[in-house]
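Fold sample X.
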Amino acid sequence: MLVMKLALLAAAAALKQKPSCDGWRCSPGFVRNEAYHGNAGTSDEQCCDITCSGAKVTCPAGHVMKDPHKPGVNATECCSATCASVACAYPKTSWPKGSPHLSKVSTDPLDCCQDSCAAISCPTKSAHLPAKLSSPATSPADCCAPTCESVSCPNGFEHVKDKLSEVAGDGQKCCQQKCGDLSGEHGFQCSQGWKPLGDARSCVTQPCNDMQCCMKTCQVYACPESYVSNPAHASAWPADDDTCCQKTCQIHQCGAGYVPGSNFQRNHTVGEASSVCCDKTCSLHQCSKGALVPGAGNITGGSDDVCCEPSLCALFRNLTKSKNTGCNFQDEGSCHGMYTSVNNTKLNKTEDLRCTWEASLGLCRLGNTKKPEGCRD
């Protein structure tokens, strides 16, 4: 037992003789840590903590190293956020680059942000300049500008309603043209052939045009098909078919005894009477001798030469030509309704003669009734 005690005492004495951290002096880039007091050691690694500068820590943008002698090996341990890292919420804005406020160690918006122009109250008939909304607020004069409401529109123009609260700029967007007055001196000027409505109304769509502001006169009125413009009414208004247009023969219905003109151009002739628009047919003609030709209502004409034929032509037109030469071999019933062709040797031509029944002989023979020339067969 005594021997064991002596061994322990010897070991303790030997330990006391080893160098400890109490006497170690930390090198630059290291710092003493009291937690290592009494530890055996003779190096910075054993007796000291490395500092932020010793570890060569680099702080990210918007952060600074407040104490380079502080123990630490990374940005989390060594760096503190400054106002430069703060994203200011609208209508606040960051301080301008180079401002000493940005280097302040803080993330509190009260420390790091300032009012922008958006936070400024603009005077009546003025509004924030869009380009300066995020700029630092200085004064209404720097942040605001007159609106379209402050612009005086010239005669014949009016404010654009949805632009009243916008910054006017040069004023070009603030006013729009109206329809003109009856004098035609202000507002929209009607084109040739149009007459102003005269009530200086607003134009539904811009730019103003004749359809919104003016009435057509007959000068520019488009007559419907089958009508033509009436030159005597060129300046008349309001324009409509009855005022501006005249009927043409194209829509006229020819009366009894008339047919449409053969010349197409007559369809564009102004007129509403058959005597103007149509040609007479032979059905209206009175023959001086003879009778009207068949289909007289379809033949254009007004003379005997065109419209008339000998009266006997109608008789022969209702007879049947004999299949045999001459009239013989026909019974009484057939004989009355037949004719035959014979050769006139004296005149050297063929003539048509009506058959006749000779009752005393009971025979069908040639009669004396001859088909006249000039029949329209």
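Fold sample Y, listed below.
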Amino acid sequence: MVDIGQDGELNVCEDLLNSKLKMFKEDVLEGTNRELAGTSLAEYIVSIACSSASILCLVLTLMTYVLFSELRTEAGLNNMFLSSSLLLAQVSLMITSHIFRSSTMCTVLGVVTHFMWLWMFSWSFLCSYHMFQVFTSSTRRTSSLQDLFMAWKKILFSLICPSAIILTTVVGSYLASAGKEIGYGRFSCYLNSTLLVGLTVAGPLSLVTIINVVFFTKAVHKIHSVRKLQSIIKKEEQNIEWHIYVKLSSVTGAFWTVAIVAAALNNNILQ
């Protein structure tokens, strides 16, 4: 089934090669299962509990925006899309984390999970950009038609950016593997390699986080400059100001820096 021809080329039976590849995939999946089985029960319970609590809070947030129309301003719609994308990303991640066998469905879930997280990163950027505009721009849109046009521009932007990254991942992986894979679902229901995770998840996340922190810094500087023009700032008002800063930092996604550090150091506590 394996021999060397007269021209010096190695000839391998296709059935043998396919069977060995199948055995290799099964060994990798078994290793992944053993690794997951070795994860402490307490860590697993805490992870599920925190994810469930986050999903519940996101659902309640969306219900609030749906029930009260006065909240559905431009900023409110941004928050609705951000909450929706984060909700879908967490749900898809919870589903894929409990599927270990490679299949077409696994590959599809991997693509969907990747898209949802990238979609959430896009809306995090858009929320930060809107915050930056509100506090630094000297002009305001007055036409409802302008608001509608801007809303559609944001939606298209939030969809095009993740789609472009995923398309690049699929095409690049397909060409690099000579048509054998598309970058998803080979060993798990996600990206096939750490390199792909770094380039298509950690890379965009780092870029968005840096830009958002810059937006946040400039917005805070603008707020502080305006407040300094006032004659007296009471202590209570200063506390309110700091609360505003904390809320703005959560919108910008500045806390994603912790996730980046955790991934780089492979620190389970930070994760």
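Sample Y note: Strands lie at 2-4, 10-12.
Also: Helices lie at 14-37, 41-67, 74-96, 104-136, 144-176, 194-228, 235-252, 256-265.
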